[in-house]
Amino acid sequence: MQQQLDALLQTATESHAVPGVSAVVTNSNGNTYAGAFGERVKGSGDRMTTDTVVWIASMTKAITGAAAMQLVEQGRLDLDAPARDTVSDIGGLQVLDNFDPDGQPVLRAPKSDITLRQLLTHSAGCTYDMWSADIQKFMQVSGTPPIISCMNAALNLPLMFDPGTNWDYGTGIDWAGKMVEQVSGQTLGAYMADNLFAPMGMDSTAFRMTDDMRGRMAKIHARTEDDQLVAQMDLEIPQDPEFEMGGGGLYGTVEDYAKFVRMILNKGQAGGNQVLKPETVAMMSVNQMGDNRVSRLVSAEAGFTNDAEFFPGIEKTWGLSFMINEQQAPTGRSAGSLAWAGLANSYYWIDPVKGIGGVYATQILPFADVKSLPLFLEFEKTVYDNLN
Questions:
Q1: Closest of 61, 135, 118 to residue 84, by C-alpha
Q2: 362 vs 23, 185, 246, 341, 371, CA distance in Å?
Q3: Disulfide-capable partner of 320 in 120, 236, 261, 285 (CB 3.0 to 4.6 Å)?
Q4: Helices 372-385 and 2-14, packing angle to 10 deg
Q5: Helices (H), strands (E): how many in the chain?
């Protein structure tokens, strides 16, 4: 498997499909593959390695979910209580019905309170602007800053449907992160460092990069219309933010994230520490949004994302907080596996049935890149082809 995966990734970088790529495959005992090829910054000569620091973006969500679930275990958070009981500001969010003839938003009160379970499953009604022209229009009219600004005002977006009635991908887990902060009395990053990163040995993952992390950092590249890759040197999550973005603010390495994947495979255990209870991991790993289903994300901002859907035609649900494929995927990924991704084309999967998982990272925009996503899926398929 090592030779096949090395050849696949090396060919991709030599053909300039991606500037650099790092990847790890793990089982419950440890890594079974680790490799990296290409450059951290195209043309720099700085090699990509498995300890290269990347923006893991929405791969942050599962870690925030784990933080919240630790507090659920302790009885300090409740999955089904009104979230406004913990963070009062969320109680002010209203549903966007439409816009009036003057272009002003028409808002109404939601029919029920938002819950932590809905925030973790993207069924609360929160939607990202990059997949919603209506949210973009609201932001323009209201002057609401983008979520990537990490300003508190960025969370004051309307709901696109009544809580619990649908699925759409958005800022819900940022609110969950605020709930963690409220009950723990710590910033989200400090809570994660004490209760997740230290027990798992994740020493290169943080919202605020250390000097050492910055020295190993890969830059995000943009794929231009003529299929060239250009480094975006100035694109960075604010390092002194108003709030630490639980939905997408972490920087880290594939080696570190593989430790998180391994903790889930080991039913909450990591390095002799019980990070989560086995029954909590089991709860996180099954559908928690009822009859709602994951749907295709249609781009409203081409520079940041393409249209995106993993395994079209396969039913997908959401746990706390992972996407779950309810049938076997074409790559060989078992039904009931957990997965998601980060905006700059980082991806992971966790297969509890076959006891394996993988982490893959490039740094390219837009999301669901025409070359990086197929490369990830081919990487995963090669892993499964070599299992037997």
A1: 118
A2: 9, 35, 21, 11, 11
A3: 120
A4: 170
A5: 11, 16
Residue 56: CA count within 13 A, CB half-sphere = 34
Angle between helices 172-184 and 60-73 (to 10 degrees): 40
Query: pLDDT tens digits, residue range 65-117?
Result: 999 999 999 999 999 999 999 999 999 999 999 999 999 999 999 999 999 99
Residue 28: CB atoms within 10 A of its CB come to 16
Q: Are 261 and 273 in contact (CB under 8 A)?
A: no
Q: Which helix (H) or strand (E) holds 138?
A: helix 133-142
Q: Is 156 exposed, middle or buried (0-12, 13-18, 19+ CB in 10 A)?
A: middle
Q: What is the mean pLDDT of residues 34-39?
A: 98
Q: How far is CA 306 from CA 223, 225, 242, 339, in A?
A: 11, 13, 29, 19
Q: How far is CA 146 from CA 119, 195, 237, 355, in A?
A: 19, 29, 12, 38
Q: Assign a CATH topology to domain 2-71+182-385.
A: Beta-lactamase (3.40.710)
Residue 120: CB atoms within 10 A of its CB come to 29
pTM: 0.97
pLDDT in tens, 124-174: 999 999 999 999 999 999 999 999 999 999 999 999 999 999 999 999 999
Cβ(113)–Cβ(79) under 8 Å?
no
Under a CB-based contact definition with an 8 Å cutoff, are residues 145 and 129 in contact? no
Roughly how many angstroms between the first and final C-alpha of the chain, as a whole number?
Answer: 11
State the pLDDT at residue 224.
84
What residue spans define the domains of the chain? 2-71+182-385
Measured over the CA atoms of residue 66, residue 207, residue 121 and residue 318, the dihedral's sign is negative
Within its chain, how far is the Cα of 187 from the centroid? 19
What is the Cα–Cα distance from 86 to 107, expressed in whole angstroms? 24
Q: Is the pLDDT of residue 20 over 90?
A: yes
Q: Rounded to whole angstroms, what are the CA distances from 58 to 249, 267, 353?
A: 8, 22, 24
| β 364-365/220-223 pair status | parallel
Q: Tens digit of pLDDT for each residue in 369-387?
A: 999 999 999 999 999 999 9
